[in-house]
Amino acid sequence: MTDTFSTNEEIIGRADINDIEAILQVTNTDVDEVVHIVKDNADAIFTWDYSLARPQLRKLYEKAKTGQWNGSTDLDWDADIDVEKVVSADQAASSAGFTADHYEGTVVEKWGDKEWLEFGIDQRRWTLSQFLHGEQGALLCTAKIVETVPWYDAKLYAATQTMDEARHVEVFHRYLDEKMGGEFQVNAHLRMLLDDIIEDSRWDMTYLGMQVMVEGLALAAFGFMHQMTEEPLLKKLLRYVMSDEARHVAFGVLSLKEVYDGMSDKEMMERQEFAFEAAIRMRDRFLSQEVWEKHGVNPKDVVPLVLKDPTRDLFQQMLFSKIVPNCKKLGLLDRNDQWLRRRFEEMSVIQFEDWEDTGSEYIKFELEGEQQEQPQPVAGE
Fold it and tell me: Care to name a GO molecular-function term for this sequence (predicted)?
């Protein structure tokens, strides 16, 4: 192999993936921005071959057509929600380690129950807001895939996913607007990743960035919140979204497996670097720096302490429980002298490599099982 990989500085802008100061320097420069323009640099491709060439994608398309739900009528928006009670219960259940002793020597040390509750409500708003913004990114990416993918079967499926993503944007925004008092701005790390995915002209990079990486992490994160919360409306909303998300990730895995099996080492190297960049950007966004700042806390004072919380560390790792096995399925882990494997080892997430990939697991998330009150899937199962 004559080609060499880019350095961490070239891929993510810093040498140490755990350089907290460098991570926190990435912030929104315009928090009041309403319109954000990104060039997608891609050609729209027609195909005149309407034959059934990829039965697995056609099967996904058929499941998508019969798996549609309506966020306006299938969710009980009239339900009264005691946000303080819900967040308090979820904070207790998550054992997030937010105790005074853990933050000794910082301003947070003096926080009482009132301050922690207010922080917890904003943390919930912030988390759901990033879900919302990520779903809008998926909406744009899937519309782009309809245009750019050269396969007829893939265009049909991607069209159904575009509708799915519109529904996801609708329900997350409505929940935030009607039940939580509005949304937070997009996190800078998430926005950078979405920009990178949309700007890339190669159709498979849209798949890799959105279908495998962003949607894979979202599926795990939705699963955690679905498992943790007892708030009925949010729980049902997440369950509906998860049924779609699993199908979306499977779409990416099944499509890219065919393409990546025929790629050269150099081509795979570019995909491995992109997967690593996406993994780091998504990990960095979960530091919630905007929430700390809103509550008058310098993130540099508390984030290092947050990262030392063992329950937080476990949460961070589990977010990659879908991404790692899917990258392995695609051959990304071990090509080019196991480059991506070593990066995931450095991130302490490689232990998920033998978990079930979403190319086959998605069926467990179908709503039909839920309606029959069968056991519900959760992240990591």
Answer: oxidoreductase activity
- Smallest CA-to-CA distance from 200 within 49, 43, 56 is with 43
Report CA-CA distances (Å) from 377 to 50, 52, 117, 342, 364. Answer: 36, 31, 29, 30, 7
State the CATH number of the domain containing residue 136.
1.10.620.20
Within 8 A by CB and 6+ apart from 194, the residues are 38, 133, 134, 137, 140, 214
Residue 112's Cβ-side half-sphere holds a number of Cα atoms within 13 Å equal to 1
pTM over 0.70: yes
- Is residue 186 within 8 Å of residue 28, measured between CB atoms? yes
Q: How many domains does the chain have?
A: 1
Residues 211-256: tens digit of each pLDDT: 999 999 999 999 989 998 999 999 999 999 999 999 999 999 999 9
* Domain assignment present for 54: no
294 lies in which domain range? 107-361
